[in-house]
Design brief:
The complex is a heterodimer.
Chain A (H helix, E strand, L loop, with lengths): L4 E10 L2 E11 L4 E6 L5 H8 L9 E6 L2 E3 L4 H6 L2 E4 L11 H5 L6 E2 L2 E2 L1 H14 L16 H13 L5 E5 L7 H16 L3 E5 L3 H7 L2 E6 L2 E7 L5 H9 L17 E11 L7 E11 L3 E6 L5 H8 L7 E7 L2 E3 L4 H6 L2 E4 L3 H5 L6 H6 L7 E2 L2 E2 L1 H14 L16 H14 L4 E5 L7 H16 L3 E5 L3 H7 L2 E6 L2 E7 L7 H8 L4
Parallel strand pairs in A: 3-10, 3-11, 6-9, 9-10, 15-22, 15-23, 18-21, 21-22
Antiparallel strand pairs in A: 1-2, 1-4, 4-5, 7-8, 11-12, 13-14, 13-16, 16-17, 19-20, 23-24
Helix pairs in contact in A: 13-14
Chain B lengths: L1 H40 L7 H26 L7 H19 L3 H26 L3 H20 L9 H8 L4 H28 L7 H25 L4 H19 L1 H11 L1 H6 L4 H27 L10 H11 L11 H20 L4 H25 L2
Helix pairs in contact in B: 1-14, 2-8, 2-9, 2-12, 2-13, 2-14, 3-4, 3-5, 3-12, 4-5, 4-12, 6-12, 7-8, 9-10, 13-14, 13-15, 14-15
The chains are: A alpha/beta, B mainly alpha.
The complex binds adenosine-5'-triphosphate and magnesium ion.
The site of magnesium ion (MG) has 6 residues of chain A, from helix 1.
């Protein structure tokens, strides 16, 4: 049988790591083929080989397209063969508008002159197709949330009219409804005969959308089969090499005194000074408690926590009490000094320093702790960093590796370590498991429980309802900047429907 | 997972150490290469102790500027005003020393303060008013030169008093040079062995003792040679001592302090740095003040070396300083660079100037070659960096 795309014995080495080890991988024409595996298993590396990001000769082995060997030396050559990729990390141009982004590199020209009218018209169509609300072709991408930016990124790949479309964790920052839209589009494309390779950590998606699945582990392909022949358990077992029975760890926490209290808190939209992104929010958070924040994207959850942390430009009003004392936070530094830490949802933009190594990134927020008179105590720093790297199981060849060379999920773990190192009293996690594999997710949930047992008060924002329900003691639902519901989740678990109802403004 | 860990201790760590070393040593090797070429081309004149001594003295001004500039570049900004600030501060030295007759110590202190205030001005606009550094300091490039013209009326002020003469053209006595050299060697031995011991105490793997000793011997030899060569002419120039002290302080700041780490973080990703609790504005302001201070020092040194303050002093020096930093591995995108590299870069440029003048090459050739070397150096850096991907 001839495959539309096939790799034979691909080996790809990076200094200190073998990312791919004799990977052979086959994709049939017209299917949606899922690629699964733990963080750092080599998924992104494999598609970078397929799409010319890692050029021919930088790896060993063969890439075959419809039976003929391909030697891509760059991305353009792969695109000429109608392979389009949506990479894991966003590559939108923030200062350009939606149309310019969608057609970046594929501008429509007539006689060498860009045909803006046509492009704006076509962009409009894409916007409708992707059901992007409140977006017009001239909207600056910067002003859109991550979910919408991701959809723009997807549109950018779709206009290339590809035969093979590769998506690397595309739903990472999408809400459920946005994910549905994407699935509809992918299903349509399959009907049109387009082949997709789909990387994800969300196994539900594999079963809902995909036809076949290939699992990578530690750079080796450990199995490939039709989805119909498999169960979730099988895939997890292949991925981690052992069975995982539980998705969430036991919750047994003694909830203590109130640590954080937020009163009549409102935040103004910096772009639209007469509108509020957060309005009259009141809540309290107790020591050892995990408070889940649920709501649709754009409900103001991120703005609320960023503003509390002193990192949101919009003007705020209201009061914050920490252990009964009123505090003023005007900058993240104030917040960190007061014992508040925030893991931001956008790790590339707000979490990582790409020019620094794993060690420097991890210790950055807690550097003051290693100060001895004037100097930094490097040895102490290294020990501490290694502790955290081990505890969170970050996969890196060494702590001196540039953080930009780590796989997406491992980068996320570095950001988490950085914030944990400040030993906060209040830890705010904004989508903490984005891009993290099943095994590691469990580890992070365990860590959350462990921290809460030690008395840390935790706020967790998550768009994954099962996660919020599985981890939180109490859940607050935000809708359009206001608290639309509060649920006690400690004894009996709240149903997803109830939360959705509150989030969408129903009753 | 287990196997990957094993690699971390063994392969991974060693390899990254190796990479780091290579980058620094590569620069030095390139410098030595340039020297060898010039030695051949000048039939040995280049390598005489007299010429090397001259070479070091010539490179001091650019080096001092580069030491400050590299911090600005690491921060992801640029300072085009340092040439004019150098000129202005040099002029102020002339005015205070010759016209006012202030004592040299007070003259120096006042000049340094003025340099810092100029840095404060630049930094304030950049950090607190959000004007891009390129614009603010371009304004400074024009403005401060104008101020210099205004206050000196366009005349050259000379001669300066004795103290400045000593600063600009003096040499340390041989004895003192030797003592300094030996002291430095002793410190290197102590420092490296102490560091090794501390690492062991923490249970980290360390390189083998033989390797360590080879490293110590090589560095000590380098120091000894440096002192001996300069001693066989007239001794270590006072100018060079000033530079070495500045280098030591700034290397310490960038490598061993929290503030230094913050500079790299801001240059790498401003937004993420701020969310990690770093005070952007304050840090930027301080860096520009430090850079103003270094420009003032360079101004004092240049006037001292020339024994005169002239309006054209330091014309175009900002570009030399930026080139030195970039040749030394700093990235104009921010987040990458180091003090030692910047000084080596400055010495590379001075070597090109010096070697070609010895050969009697016309001025225009010097400029062409310097331009080419700048482009080649950065190309080399980019090419080797991409290889790792
Ligand atoms: N440019 C690079 N330089 C060095 N090492 C790299 C580079 N890119 C990837 N690696 C390493 O290769 C391995 C595989 O990384 P890859 O990004 O393919 O993982 P992944 O399966 O996509 O993981 P994730 O689910 O976390 O995105 C990792 O150990 C990573 O550190
Ligand atoms: Mg990946």
């Amino acid at each position: 049988m001839e495959y539309i795309l096939e790799t034979k014995d691909i080996i790809k080495d990076f200094p200190g790591v073998r990312a791919l080890d004799h990977v052979s991988f086959q994709v049939e024409e017209g299917e949606i083929h899922s690629l699964c595996g733990e963080n750092g298993a080599g998924k992104s590396t494999l598609i970078k080989v397929l799409s010319g990001v890692h050029p021919y000769k930088s790896y060993e082995g063969q890439v075959l397209l419809k039976g003929t060997e391909q030697k891509f030396s760059n991305i353009n050559e792969a695109e000429e063969q109608r392979i389009a990729v949506i990479h894991q990390e966003l590559t939108v141009f923030e200062d350009l508008n939606v149309t310019e982004n969608i057609f970046m590199g594929n501008e429509i020209e007539t006689n060498g002159i860009i045909d803006w009218d046509l492009m704006y018209k076509k962009a409009e169509k894409w916007i409708n197709k992707l059901k992007l609300e409140n977006v017009n072709p001239r909207t600056k991408v910067k002003s859109l949330g991550m979910g919408k930016q991701q959809l723009i990124e997807i549109a950018k790949a779709l206009v290339k009219d590809a035969e093979i479309l590769i998506l690397d964790e595309p739903t990472d920052s999408l809400t459920d409804s946005e994910t549905e839209i994407l699935f509809d589009i992918l299903n349509d494309l399959r009907d049109e005969g387009v082949t997709c390779i789909y990387i994800t950590h969300k196994l539900d998606e594999v079963f809902e959308l995909c036809d076949s699945v290939t699992v990578l582990r530690d750079g080796e392909s450990v199995g490939s089969d039709k989805v119909n022949n498999l169960e979730k358990r099988d895939i997890v077992q292949m991925m981690v090499g052992r069975e995982i029975n539980q998705r969430f760890p036991e919750r047994k926490t003694d909830i203590g005194e109130t640590v954080l209290e937020v009163k009549d808190y409102s935040v103004v939209d910096p772009e639209n000074p007469d509108q509020f992104v957060v309005k009259d929010v009141n809540f309290e958070l107790k020591a050892g408690e995990v408070l889940g924040f649920s709501g649709l994207v754009g409900a103001g959850r991120t703005e609320l926590v960023n503003s509390i942390f002193g990192a949101f430009p919009g003007e705020k009003s209201g009061e914050i009490y920490l252990e009964g004392n009123k505090i003023e936070i005007t900058s993240p530094k104030d917040a960190i000094n007061q014992g508040i830490a925030l893991v931001s949802e956008d790790r590339k933009r707000f979490g990582l320093i790409p020019t620094m190594d794993v060690k420097e990134n991890t210790s950055l927020a807690a550097l003051q702790d290693f100060k001895e008179s004037l100097s930094l105590n490097h040895n102490q720093e290294i020990s501490k960093v290694r502790d955290y790297i081990d505890k969170l199981n970050v996969k890196t060849p060494s702590i001196r590796e540039k953080v930009s060379k780590l796989s997406g999920g491992n980068q996320q773990k570095v950001v988490l370590s950085k914030n944990l190192m400040t030993q906060p009293e209040v830890l705010i996690l904004d989508e903490p498991t984005r891009g993290i594999d099943v095994g590691a997710k469990y580890e992070i949930y365990k860590l959350i429980q462990e921290l809460s047992k030690q008395g840390v008060a935790i706020i967790m924002i998550s768009s994954e309802l099962p996660e919020v329900i599985g981890v939180s003691d109490r859940i607050l639902v935000l809708s359009q900047g206001e608290i639309a519901g509060e649920f006690d989740n400690s004894e009996t678990r709240v149903s997803q429907e109830k939360i959705m109802m509150a989030a969408t403004g129903g009753n | 997972m287990k196997e990957a860990k094993k690699e971390e201790g063994f392969l991974g760590l060693k390899k990254s150490n190796f990479n780091f070393d290579i980058k620094t040593y590569m620069m030095v090797i390139a410098l030595v290469g340039i020297w060898v070429v010039f030695t051949f081309l000048t039939k040995g004149t280049f390598l005489t102790s007299r010429n090397l001594s001259n070479l070091f003295r010539q490179s001091v001004i650019t080096s001092v500027l580069a030491v400050g500039m590299v911090l600005v570049i690491i921060l992801g900004e640029v300072d085009l005003s340092v040439g004019s600030v150098l000129g202005l501060c040099g002029g102020i030295v002339g005015i205070l020393d010759v016209w006012v007759g202030l004592n040299p110590f007070l003259t120096i202190v006042s000049t340094l303060v003025i340099g810092m205030l100029i840095g404060l001005w630049n930094g304030w606009w950049i950090a607190y008013r959000g004007v891009p550094s390129l614009i603010v300091t371009l304004g400074g490039l024009l403005g401060f030169r104008g101020v210099l013209l205004g206050v000196t009326g366009g005349t050259t002020i000379s001669p300066l008093s004795k103290a400045f003469n000593y600063l600009g053209s003096g040499y340390l006595p041989e004895m003192v040079s030797n003592v300094l050299g030996l002291g430095l060697i002793a410190y290197i031995i102590y420092y490296r062995l102490h560091k090794r011991k501390k690492k062991k105490e923490h249970g980290f793997e360390v390189s083998s003792l033989t390797l360590e000793i080879i490293k110590i011997v090589l560095t000590s030899l380098l120091v000894a040679m440096f002192v001996m060569i300069l001693n066989s002419y007239q001794g270590i120039p006072v100018l060079v001592i000033v530079l070495l002290v500045a280098m030591a302080i700034f290397t310490y700041i960038t490598k061993n302090t929290v503030f230094g780490r913050h500079i790299y973080a801001i240059g790498g990703n401003e937004e993420a740095a701020e969310l990690s609790g770093i005070e952007l504005k304050k840090s930027k302001l301080i860096i520009f003040m430090l850079n103003g201070l270094m420009a003032a020092i360079a101004g004092i040194l240049l006037s001292s070396r020339l024994n005169a303050a002239s309006v054209s002093a330091g014309d175009g020096a900002e570009l030399d300083a930026i080139a030195a930093c970039v040749i030394g591995g700093a990235s104009l995108a921010g987040g990458i660079g180091n003090v030692l590299g910047a000084v080596v870069g400055a010495v590379v440029m001075a070597s090109l100037d010096n070697g070609m003048s010895l050969m009697g090459a016309p001025m225009y050739w010097q400029q062409i070659v310097k331009g080419l070397v700048l482009v080649l150096a950065v190309w080399f850096d980019v090419a080797t960096r991409n290889k790792g991907e």
